[in-house]
């Protein structure tokens, strides 16, 4: 935890004369960490460096009945705290592990009642960094499986890559949570690889992985339903509208 504390001291809102946050690769020289990793646009941990001990079991937000955080109509639980500190992260307001409010039985009961609705396909874990909040998410995921089996799916976003999570020395709780998850969107957000046409992710290095297939094959397996756009829908709409107006004139 000393290294994690040092990392937080040097990156938690500290900006140098360059106008950029000071970011670190804590596993310098290590290869095979996944697409575009390490990146100079985030912190890059070594195996087991960051753990659930950083968590305060805080929740930044809970949203019901969305269609943006994965397939179908979903409930989304946003946990607090993330040490990756990706440049231009859109959720930087919840990097702080003490942001928001503490997870409690009332919220858990609400989540379970919402998931019981027939039109809800599943739940999504986001943040913040879900795999550093396993104290909340692992018991919740197991309760969801106990009550609903696999009739409700579990999606999760993480700054870790699959390859990083499989490294020797990573903490067991992360792997335990992974075994309860159906779909994992992995990897840091890298602003130079931003692409608005991607399905459910922000930069081209990120992947949508079928977790159980990945465990079965011993390598990352991309979700079979992946379908990125080839061009912006507004552009298509604009051209069709212009053509229609031309014909009418």
Question: Can you tell me about this structure?
Answer:
The protein is α/β, with parallel strands linked by helices and 249 residues long. The chain has one domain. It is built from 7 helices and 7 strands. It has a 7-stranded mixed sheet with strand order 3-1-2-4-5-6-7. The longest helix has 16 residues, at 233-248. Mean pLDDT is 89; it is low at 1-18 and 244-249.
Distance between the termini: 70 Å
Largest sheet: 7 strands, mixed
Strand order of the largest sheet: 3-1-2-4-5-6-7
Q: Quote the average pLDDT.
A: 89
Q: Give the proportion of residues in helices.
A: 25-40%
What class, by secondary structure content?
Answer: alpha/beta
Beta strands, count? 7
The string of secondary-structure elements, in order, is: HEEEHEHEHHEEHH
- Count of discrete structural domains: 1
Task: Provide key terms for this protein.
single chain; 249 residues; alpha/beta; 7-stranded mixed sheet
């Amino acid at each position: 935890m000393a290294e994690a504390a040092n990392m937080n001291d040097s990156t938690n809102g500290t900006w140098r004369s360059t106008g950029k946050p000071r970011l670190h690769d804590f596993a310098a020289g290590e290869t095979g960490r996944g697409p575009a990793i390490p990146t100079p646009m985030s912190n890059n941990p070594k195996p087991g460096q960051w753990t659930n001990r950083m968590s305060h079991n805080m929740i930044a937000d809970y949203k019901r009945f969305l269609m943006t955080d994965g397939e179908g109509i979903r409930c989304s639980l946003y946990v607090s705290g993330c040490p990756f500190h990706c440049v231009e992260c859109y959720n930087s307001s919840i990097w702080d592990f003490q942001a928001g409010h503490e997870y409690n039985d009332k919220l858990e009961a609400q989540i379970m009642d919402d998931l019981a609705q027939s039109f809800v396909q599943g739940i999504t874990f986001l943040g913040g960094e879900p795999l550093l909040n396993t104290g909340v998410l692992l018991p919740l995921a197991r309760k969801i499986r106990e009550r609903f089996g696999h009739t409700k799916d579990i999606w999760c976003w993480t700054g870790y890559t699959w390859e990083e999570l499989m490294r020797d020395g990573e903490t067991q709780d992360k792997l335990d949570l992974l075994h309860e998850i159906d779909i994992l969107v992995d990897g840091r957000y890298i602003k130079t690889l931003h692409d608005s046409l991607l399905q459910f992710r922000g930069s081209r290095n990120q992947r949508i992985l079928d977790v159980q297939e990945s465990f079965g094959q011993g390598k990352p397996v991309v979700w079979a339903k992946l379908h990125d756009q080839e061009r912006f829908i507004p552009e298509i709409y604009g051209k069709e509208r212009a053509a229609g107006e031309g014909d009418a004139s």
